[in-house]
Amino acid sequence: MVTVACDLCGSEEHTLLFVKEGFRHVRCRRCGLVFVNPRLADHTQSQMRSGTGAMGDEFLTPPQEKRLMHEVAVLEPFRRLNRVLEVGAGRGWFIAAALKAGWDAWALEINSQALERLAAVNPGRVIKEPAEDFQCDPGCVDVVRMWDVIEHLASPSRAVANIHRVLRPGGLLTLATTNFASLSRWVNGPEWVYLNGADHIVLFEPETIRRLLIQVGFTAISIRTRSFNLRRKLYHPERELPVRSKLLLPFRKIVDETIRLTLYGHQMIVTAVKKNNEN
């Protein structure tokens, strides 16, 4: 295990929130970022060997494919260089959809299982480097997608700064991550399914993800949230836990639909634009 400072502001002062399976989850006293401290010393190497990089559906359903194609279509106004990069491309579903729409699609990935899959989906367009360290020419990409990845990174601030560098002026970053400020986390407590100290080591809230993006230099930041769930889980060994509050079960779908109007959904979906020097 290794002790770390806050990745967002550099402070070493933090408050213990809870311990789950030996992993201390703390909140920075200066900026409010929640992170695991100490964490596994070989965290990045562990993500290369195993982690969750290759998790997901083996096959997509027609509605899932339709949602992905819609997501790609929304990116059309940003197509100038015709290049999109997905950080943490996993099984390559988004890459496949972008290729189908005519994009020059690139994948950034370190997980060994995911790399095997991506080599078949998009040969010759896979970068095998950590998000914090990858090298591309500045301003060479229209869009960067980072879906359920930032919470796994040893240094989200370095990764997002790197993404900002490779985006062209006016380019778009779109990302999704678990929302630590969600109603789901509040109801489920430390046993919430998305709290896994071996994998999810930095946990953002709307306020802290906005602060990171502004700090790096992004503008036009938009944050929305979605979904409510009652899953609780332990990981070492893996074991599903019973629902803590059965009183909410009959109302889960109602809450799920209503929570989209708030910032308390369990998943944050964020977009941000690199300032256009022409403006």
Describe this structure in words.
With 279 residues, the chain is of the alpha/beta class. It has a single domain (58-274), classed as Rossmann fold, CATH 3.40.50. The chain is 26% helix and 27% strand. Helix 2 (62-74) packs across helix 3 (93-100). The longest helix is centred in the N-terminal third of the chain and has 13 residues, at 62-74. The relative contact order is 0.14. The mean pLDDT is 93.
List the defining traits of the structure above.
alpha/beta; Rossmann fold; 7-stranded mixed beta sheet; 4-stranded antiparallel beta sheet; 13 strands; 27% strand
Helix/strand order:
EEEHHEHEHEEHEHEHEEEHE
Task: Give me the secondary-structure category.
Answer: alpha/beta
Fraction of helical residues: 25-40%
Low-confidence stretches: none
**CATH superfamily grouping:** Vaccinia Virus protein VP39
Question: What is the end-to-end distance?
Answer: 47 Å
Give me the number of helical elements.
8
Q: Supply Rg.
A: 19 Å
Task: Indicate the CATH class.
Answer: Alpha Beta
